[in-house]
Amino acid sequence: MIKNILVIDDSALMRRLISDIIRSDKRFSISDVATNGLEGFDLITLNPTKYDAILLDINMPKMNGIQLLEQLNKMRLKLKIIMVSTLAKEGAKETIRCLELGAFDFVTKPESYIEAKDGAFKEKILTALTFATELVPPTEFKVADKTRTVLTTLNTQTHDRITKPKAFIERKSHVRVLNSAKKIVALACSTGGPKALHQVIPKLPANLDAPIVIVQHMPEGFTNSLASRLNELCALTVKEAEHGELIQKGYVYVAKGGSQLRIVKSRDGYTLSVTTEAARNGLKPCADIMYESLVDTDYEDITCVILTGMGGDGTQGIKKLTEKNNIYVIAQDEATSTVYGMPKVIYESGLVDEVVPLEMVADAITKNVGVQ
């Protein structure tokens, strides 16, 4: 079935470039084009179910992308919107705001026409549209033929228990620790992650009894804006991870886009290692790398959290972690995930202790970690 796409951009060049990209793939069709947010808003409200996905510019006259998203939120319209963002600092802040408002994902604009023709921008657009319109499953993952009980939190108003049998990898049970134990929370997310983080991190108490490290799949230049925005909303201090920084309670460290994050032993405790190196499975930062770095630490309780996102990043790292460490794994449920990929993979692996809707993730973290 051909997917209908709406393009909203005030640049004639970008409209033509994006339209050519979409027309090059027979799975998609340009249904309409708008030159500003107000035109786009009129088209959307005229027939909200017409479009399978929308490509939306941020900076436009009459109504910009942020204002359009705000209006759609007021009308409770749920649409798959992909932002087309600049790499500039201000563009990064605006992009984070759009993701906070519910945009499905974003792609960065090429900085020149030559760059736009090299194929990378085309690939980003078509990949984002493919997942937004659900033309392919968010992930495929095979696990061993073993079973294990999973605790699933029940919200009787909006969510059901997961009762479908699954195949699982065996792991040792989580052991409760004393309040004085050394703890850390390690969280991973991808598509839909920024919005999810805005609904989790601000709910955590300032006296949470563990530091938090986060891997959110995002390019360089955007993670600092994400951390800054979260810091404005949180009782905890949220910042982009810096190389050599001592890990402390009361802090949330967001992995730097375009780099890899590890937790390493130092003379004074544990510090962050932020390195520029090759991507793993196309990911910089990669959650598997972050989780693997915790294997040789002496944290007595590691709370692993997997939120919405494409693919299965984090599962292999957590699997290595459970072979040696005492861990508790929390996964977001399908109903509240923007993309049920990463949470599905970790759940089907049998490594999960608890499956919860997004609005209950912060409570699940706090309950397991405790407060000082």
TrEMBL record:
GO molecular-function term, one example from the UniProt record: phosphorelay response regulator activity
EC number(s) reported in the record: 3.1.1.61, 3.5.1.44
Subcellular location: Cytoplasm
One GO term describing the cellular component: cytoplasm
Keyword Nucleotide-binding on entry: no
Reactions it catalyzes: [protein]-L-glutamate 5-O-methyl ester + H2O = L-glutamyl-[protein] + methanol + H(+); L-glutaminyl-[protein] + H2O = L-glutamyl-[protein] + NH4(+)
Positions of the Response regulatory domain: 4-124
One GO BP annotation of this record: chemotaxis
Active-site feature positions: S190, H217, D313
Keywords, sorted A to Z: Chemotaxis, Cytoplasm, Hydrolase, Phosphoprotein
Keyword Protein biosynthesis in annotation: no
Domain of life, per lineage: Bacteria
Protein family per UniProt: Belongs to the CheB family.
Protein name: Protein-glutamate methylesterase/protein-glutamine glutaminase
Annotated gene: cheB
